[in-house]
Amino acid sequence: MKPRFRRVSKGQSKTWQGELPKSEQGYVFVLEDSETGTVAGICAIEVAVGLNDPWYNYRVGTLVHASKELNVYNALPTLFLSNDHTGSSELCTLFLDPDWRKEGNGYLLSKSRFMFMAAFRDKFNDKVVAEMRGVIDEHGYSPFWQSLGKRFFSMDFSRADFLCGTGQKAFIAELMPKHPIYTHFLSQEAQDVIGQVHPQTAPARAVLEKEGFRYRNYIDIFDGGPTLECDIDRVRAIRKSRLVEVAEGQPAQGDFPACLVANEIITISAWCWCVPIQRPSV
């Protein structure tokens, strides 16, 4: 076991045992082919964001400038720095190996978190958010960052994203603009990607929207990607989950819809589902 995974496992154990404050609690899930041991994907949940370090978004709003005397009325789209999602639970770290992106494997991986949240509802907060990857090209170029963030941070997008991802977030509060930003001052290329997702992220967004998540005009401060949100009890998979008793028996005949099955018993190292997954073609 590599050190990184060892630290993750230790953190999950302390989370489950209630030894960590909510601000440090999180769960990591792995999609594994049990026959081969191949790891196909990974996803995670943060229990509560923004309780240690500020959680930043831009809220896309409107400021009106009007003059009756001059017969001028302008409603201007504006970005406001926001901490509105502080305390929300977050869906994060979704990655599926490209070879496994077929036949609903990504759908299964994404929805697995909702099954866990339904089984252990009291461990999560009332609102759930998910930051979607914004528009970035294969060279790491982000039109939104190039037109806005880089002017204040004086660094490349990849550097800023790395610092934030490793918990070094103090620079955001120190360098971020404190006043509303009129989007008309950004390049047209940057304006066009506000609230838009990377093409490879579009399927993940579609899955969340089917579950009831919506874009409420909050975007990532780095790449301009949308933040989706939903009240936890309105998430379709959580709302429609059912507790039933099962007994050993003979397999039923005929075609039946696939079900994601879990239980309410968890150990330090495992909380598992056994479901069919589609393997990559050889």
3D structure, described in words:
There is one protein chain. By secondary structure, the protein is an alpha+beta fold. It has one domain: Aminopeptidase (3-Layer(aba) Sandwich). 26% of the residues lie in helices and 23% in strands. It has a nine-stranded mixed β-sheet with strand order 1-2-5-6-9-8-3-4-7, sandwiched between helices. A hairpin with a 4-residue loop joins strand 3 and strand 4 (72-82). Helix 2 crosses helix 7 (202-210). The longest helix has 15 residues, at 105-119. Keywords: Acyltransferase, Arginine metabolism, Transferase. InterPro entries: Acyl_CoA_acyltransferase (IPR016181), Arg_succinylTrfase_AstA/AruG (IPR007041), Arginine_N-succinylTrfase (IPR017650). One of its GO terms (molecular function) is arginine N-succinyltransferase activity. It is an enzyme of class 2 (transferase). It comes from Escherichia coli.
